[in-house]
Specification:
With about 450 residues, the protein is of the alpha/beta class. About 40% of the residues lie in helices and about 15% in strands. It has helices at about 35, 50-70, 85-95, 125-130, 140-145, 165-170, 185-200, 215-230, 245-260, 270-275, 290-295, 330-345, 345-350, 360-365, 365-370, 400-410, 415-435, 445; strands spanning about 40-50, 70-80, 100-105, 120, 145, 150, 155, 155-165, 210, 280-285, 300-305, 315, 320-325, 355, 385. Helix 2 links the parallel strand 1 (about 40-50) and strand 2.
């Protein structure tokens, strides 16, 4: 994220960790001292990584839960986003100091040794609180299942999007009859649209913000367009390498052309600000909706352009997990199920921050369909480009840490697309032989782990 944009992440970990008050050494079941003090029946300790606008929305949802369920005392703690969060969560689960409930990116579940650092959900108990498998996209639910057990309860889908200024795009003739951005179906059409947009853009502003030198975004955008070409990285079981260097070169050349043709600045440090000031396009995560909405722009958002014929845009998901506790069960465990189910079922409030609710009944609510631009890009959940289900993948995982800089180097011109594609394949080859530090097995030997 651009450092000056008030986003929830600060992708590179610029946010300091907030204090985790009273998180360790507390009873896993029964009525805790805190619950007694608040006249509640049970205390649920809940960790999350939501700051910024997401943090505000989550706090509002927790307050609503407290009002509706006064007998459950929720003690929530917000930790630093990214690897610091996952390191602390793993250490807590391994050291018998885990919270009762936590948030995790769905792609990180295979690397968290399900069954050892995570406990499975009681789907019968979830059903008692109104949440069932039929309420979710089958692919999303399947990604949360390991060895036949549910280890993640999906909360949302957050996707990379193409944000566009309606005022500039209208001047450039790029809007359809409905007032939304007209679709393109090839790289040639996309670059033709960018040329028209550049002519309609006031001087000093780039045409497209794409964070060309930021590793995480570079990897996410690569994966989106690589998936559009039908490219895969690993076999379905996560054991064999299927990375196609020819397809990778095609995508890398496409991304690099945005820089060489002058549509984007190679540094990409002020993409969001430029969009607010009049740039016609920026590629950002859906979490930027509150930022751009707060700036009172006339804008829209769609999934990334399907320039290679097949719609696909990178997506991840936040989900609720149960960090491992010896003897998990009883009133506190039931309270954790109740809290997670409540938040998932009341995701309309969460979607105001830009996220697509994972709970499908929310998508049919009139208030959700009236949200703009959320309703314009809800189709992103139907063509998610996701990372392989292996221990080294997932948000800020080792895979992103290693391939992201390679893509960024190609974007900026310090490495050729051909050399970068070979380098990326080599990274996958090496990662397949590495052992999962939490499970002690290599992906090539153990498979991806999801059912």
């Amino acid at each position: 994220m651009p450092p000056s944009l008030p986003t929830r992440r600060g992708v590179l970990g610029g946010l300091g960790a907030l204090a985790v008050a009273g998180s360790f050494g507390l009873a896993a079941a029964g009525r805790s001292a805190s619950a007694i003090a608040s006249d509640a029946d049970v205390r649920v300790r809940y960790w999350n990584l939501f700051s910024g606008g997401d943090g505000v929305n989550m706090i509002a949802m927790l307050d609503a839960f407290r009002r509706a369920n006064p007998r459950v005392d929720v003690k929530d703690s917000t930790l630093q986003w990214g690897n610091p969060y996952y390191t602390k969560l793993a250490m807590a689960a391994a050291g018998q100091r885990a919270p009762d409930l936590a948030v995790m990116h769905l792609g990180r579940i295979p690397g968290f040794a399900p069954g050892r650092l995570l406990d499975p959900w009681d789907v019968g108990l979830l059903a008692r609180y109104g949440v069932r498998e039929a309420d979710f996209d089958p692919l999303l639910w399947k990604r949360a299942v390991v060895d036949g057990k549910l280890y993640g309860l999906p909360l949302d889908i957050h996707a990379q999007l193409c944000f566009y200024r309606r005022d500039v795009c209208a001047k450039a003739g790029l809007l359809g009859d409905d007032g939304d951005l007209a679709a393109v179906s090839s790289p040639e059409e996309w670059f033709k649209a960018l040329k028209a947009a550049r002519k309609a853009t006031k001087g000093g502003l780039q045409t497209l913000g794409m964070k060309a030198n930021e590793p995480n975004f570079s990897w996410w955008f690569f994966l989106s367009f690589y998936t559009q070409l039908g490219g895969t990285c690993l076999s379905a079981d996560g054991r064999d390498l299927t990375f196609d260097t020819d397809k990778a070169v095609e995508v890398l050349e496409f991304l690099r052309q945005h820089v060489t043709d002058g549509f984007t600045t190679p540094v990409g440090i002020a993409d969001g600000e430029m969009f607010i000031n009049g740039s016609p396009f920026t590629w950002e995560g859906n979490w930027s909706v509150p930022v751009f909405g707060g700036a009172k722009l006339d804008y829209g958002a769609t999934p990334l352009p399907a320039v290679f014929g097949r719609a696909a845009t990178h997506a991840e998901s936040h989900c609720f997990v149960l960090p491992h506790q010896e003897g998990r069960g009883g009133p506190t465990d039931e309270g954790a199920h109740q809290l997670a189910a409540y938040v998932v079922r009341h995701a309309l409030d969460w979607s105001r921050g830009g996220h697509i609710p994972a709970y499908k009944p929310t998508l049919r609510v009139e208030k959700y369909r009236a949200l703009k631009p959320q309703s314009e890009y809800v189709s992103a959940m139907d063509h998610m480009a996701v990372e392989p289900d292996v221990w080294f993948a997932g948000s800020t995982g080792i895979l992103a840490q290693r391939v992201g800089p390679a893509v960024a180097a190609s974007n900026s011109g310090s490495a050729s697309p051909d050399a970068t594609a070979r380098r990326m394949r080599g990274i996958f080859e090496k990662l397949l032989t590495m052992k999962d530090p939490m499970a002690g097995r290599a992906a090539a030997a153990a498979g991806g782990g999801t059912a």
